Sequence to fold (396 residues):
Amino acid sequence: MASSKTIRIGIIGTGFAGKFHVECLHRIYGVTVEIAGITSRRLESRQAFGHAHQIPVFDSIEAMLPHVDLIDVCSPPYAHEAGILAAAAAEKAIICEKPLTGYFGPTGADEKYRGDKDSKSKMLDESVQRMQKIAAAVRKHNVFFGYAENFVYAPSLQKEREIIEKTGAQILRMTGEESHNGSASPVYGIWRFAGGGSLIGKGCHPLGGMLYLKRVEGLARTGKPIRPVSVSARTHQITRTPGYRDVKLIRTDYHDIEDYGFMHVTFEDGTVCDTLTSEVVLGGIYDYVEVFANNHRTRCYISPTGLMDAYNPRGEQFKDVYLIEKASTKEGWSPAAPDENFTIGYQAEIQDFITCAVTGTRPQSDLELALDTTATIYAAYLSDERKGAEVEIPQL
Ligand SMILES: NC(=O)c1ccc[n+]([C@@H]2O[C@H](COP(=O)([O-])OP(=O)(O)OC[C@H]3O[C@@H](n4cnc5c(N)ncnc54)[C@H](O)[C@@H]3O)[C@@H](O)[C@H]2O)c1
Fold:
């Protein structure tokens, strides 16, 4: 680090994630943050982003590394591993967007590759190997690692953490969901870039949040996290069923991924959590976790949160007003999100990472959570291939 209270950040990726990371980095307190570099695959995108946000532009990760203390990986999932390994080898702190990594087809996979038809046991084996490589590099170089799972940092989940820690609660079951209509990324829906569909692209959020809460429970009561041991799952391509009636309101142009998925996870203490996730939902982003414990019950709203409802009789008048992610209309009543970076957890996430990177402390969302989440999802794909049979989750 440049000094104990200053940190220079280099960002990989100028898409949706790159943009909200920059917004949050500008609002950090207690540490002086310098956004010292941006790089991405396309020259025009990195130059435009650098110009718009006044950030120095670099042509590659390697060129950016000497100028930064922390690499913030906001590239698509297939590129996460390269960014992490380069940063770890250079002994830089790391933030990595979700999912940690995955399986992206054989070397040289092109548009003919179809992940939905490929062997899921091979995917599980190879994604485990990638995770082991990443974990080994991070641990060998002893660098800071923050796994950017915003559900962990949503104000509602952090309140639930406090309840668990202060009351010694045992969570018996949980249900969580993230569903919305696609993604802004041009490579979403293509397995060789994204590593899968709804299960990994969206399901990783509620799953990560729920795995985190069981970790918190175990750490609070016995000092040891409670980890997931098995999963049963199904996925579907609902918009591709012959009977699907397309009225052009739901996105359907996915290449080779599922648009609906379900994961039933059993933890080592016999308790469970269920994740629902889909692309086939109208009405904007739909994110929550519901907790059923032995001494309390909570509904953690992540989006919408119920902070504000806005009524707009004429869509056109709100054309420059942001209301909520992925709502297809601004007409009528909308569940508006006055500060999404706060309610979805982005701001608290980046604050925790920057503070921990500078002070050498462990973030709430760490490498171990990233490994458990990703291993669970690839075990879930294998379960789906076996029509929902229970599959053991590799313990990494
Ligand atoms: N936490 C969240 O809520 C959330 C929301 C959106 C995206 N994400 C995650 O953020 C990441 C990026 O998603 P996005 O929607 O911003 O994607 P995007 O496709 O909009 O942007 C990706 C950026 O990465 C760059 N890139 C692509 N390949 C690269 C490579 N090999 N090397 C360097 N740069 C490369 C692209 O040029 C582009 O600038 C993904 O992992 C995604 O899952 C998280």
